[in-house]
Known about the structure:
By secondary structure, this protein is α/β, with parallel strands linked by helices. It has helices at residues 19-29, 48-55, 73-80, 91-98, 105-112, 125-129, 131-142, 168-179, 214-225, 253-264, 308-311, 328-338, 380-397; strands spanning 6-11, 33-38, 59-60, 83-89, 117-121, 146-147, 151-154, 160-164, 189-194, 199-200, 206-207, 229-234, 246-249, 269-272, 279-281, 302-304, 317-324, 343-348, 360-361, 364-367, 372-374, 378-379. The chain is globular and about 75 Å long.
Amino acid sequence: MLANKTIVLGITGSIASYKSADLASKLTQDGARVEVIMTESATRFISPITFRGVTSRPVVTSMWEMSSGFSIEHVALAEAADIIVIAPATADIIAKLANGIADDSLTCTVLATKAPVLIAPAMDTGMWRNSITQENVARLKTRDFTFIEPGYGHLASGCVGEGRLADIRIIIDTIRQILGRNGDMAGKRIVVTAGGTHEAIDPVRYIGNRSSGKMGFAVAEAARNRGAGVVLITGPTALPDPAGIEVIHIQTAIQMKKAVVKTVAKADVLIMAAAVADYMPKRQTTQKIKKTAAGRALTLDLVETPDILAEVKGGFLRVGFAAETEDIIENATRKLRNKQLDLIAANDVTASNSGFEVDTNRVTIISQDGKSEALPLMSKKEVAGRILDKVLKLLNGKPGAKGHTH
């Protein structure tokens, strides 16, 4: 996603500037070409050598030093940028940009660019809440600058409140979202389910499974990165909510079905990557079930949960997953036909490197016409991309696909 992209990273004079070294490093590892511009005050918090080390690129610190190899730095960088990211952004830099002040390399570059600009503020709570700062932020938002709200927590001043630099993961997710706005899935709406469901036995215990949600989250993020509007409906997981995606948290299969019905009406695609429990207790006790005499068995009456893929109908593409332990292709093909799916991705969940709770997967994608493609072991992010490639071909092949909107 970030390979061969030029990201101009602006660093301003905040104690949080040390976190930007990690941001620059991760962007570089993702294949981006990171060009760093530091304000003079930023160099008092962290050395330019640090950024040169992690990006392998010269660092611009002054309009009067041609250290970067660009002829007229602020113009050349402005034209080369796919996106400009200012992280951390102080109240000072926000005020300058809001009022068109261009008195250093960073402000000149921002004013000269046609690229999108992303701003991640970091400052004292009082400065962030100040009406002048908020007016400046509002003004920049009307000019299509994108802001990531600062986090809440302990600040350098010793106070607790808003003002912390947003998590690096959120900043990178937002960069991917912005760069993907005009991607090949722009204008499409995709609903993705992820994780397992918890079917309560009593207030303490539940029936569940080992699904980590990683495959569904990877699909949702990949669709976002290609410009789609994404709704992610997820059962309990340990994963943080992805930026730029509407996330709906549920616990049970019944709750998931209600969320799918509510969101899929205007969708182009439903991708059911969730491991929905097949059964739920017929009754849930209101109090914790106590252990009685040793050796005495506990019997539960179970009933089937809703079959979401089979029961939810509409004019959207339907993609399912088949987590199998034997006869993988046969069972998945049967599921594809019985539920009238457009695609199904089948995998062996007993394999140590392609089942639950791991970052890799080995799947076979089966289409409605019976054709199948067995993918080699790859990351779940790569699997997500391959599934979406097939989804896009199906979408483009639908009648009236070029103007397909809801």
